[in-house]
Design brief:
The protein contains nine helices and five strands. About 55% of the residues lie in helices and about 15% in strands. It starts with a strand and ends with a helix. Helix 2 packs across helix 3. The protein has a single domain, classed as P-loop containing nucleotide triphosphate hydrolases (Rossmann fold), CATH 3.40.50. Its EC number is 2.7.4.3. This is Adenylate kinase.
Length: about 190
């Protein structure tokens, strides 16, 4: 089983690349954002609980996010592996993911970070914001705040996974097919 954690700053191309990788390697793609939207839209018990925090302007606690993710994993017992997109975002979440996967007899195979210069990513998101309808892609200050959040909370995952010899950085700039090729060259070593 191959379990890949794909991360990078907003606009780095995680969602785009996940679409190619899930097909090429027959992986189940789990996007934290999609899982949240599903639970909220369908008023699941977990979605209703998350909504209570969101409505108060609070972050959804790790324990609830992890429960949603675990439920999503449990829905796919026959998968060849998972592609985690947007999770974990903190070392506490990484610890929880490791513990959960270990309980199933699995583990994280590798973590791959799509790396790109902030200025290029800001331009990508502003361009995406013209068609996405996402307010957070249309305001440069909001974009830069998201990067600050990433630097403070998610960047420490680099050291976390380096300590496990599972971290791989991939240049996220170039043609989509070139980036897919770079990612594949890492995944093909497992």
């Amino acid at each position: 089983m191959i379990n890949i954690v794909l991360f990078g700053k907003p606009g780095a191309g995680k969602g785009t690349q996940a679409e190619f990788l899930k097909t090429k390697y027959n992986l189940t793609h789990i996007s934290t954002g999609d899982v949240f939207r599903y639970n909220l839209k369908n008023n699941t018990p977990l979605g209703l609980e998350a909504k209570g925090f969101i409505d108060k302007g609070e972050l959804v606690p790790d324990a609830l996010t992890i429960k949603m993710l675990q439920d999503e994993v449990e829905k796919n017992p026959d998968t060849k592996g998972f592609l985690f997109d947007g999770f974990p975002r903190t070392t506490a979440q990484a610890d929880a993911l490791d513990a959960f996967l270990t309980s199933k007899g699995w583990g994280v195979t590798a973590t791959i970070a799509l790396e790109a210069d902030d200025e290029i990513l800001v331009e990508r998101l502003l361009e995406r914001g013209k068609t996405s309808g996402r307010a957070d892609d249309q305001d440069e200050n909001l974009i830069r705040n998201r990067y600050q959040e990433y630097n403070e909370k998610t960047a420490p995952l680099i050291e976390y996974y380096k300590a496990q010899d599972k971290f791989h950085a991939v240049n996220g700039i170039g043609e989509i097919s070139e980036i897919t090729g770079r990612l594949s060259s890492v995944i093909d070593t497992f």
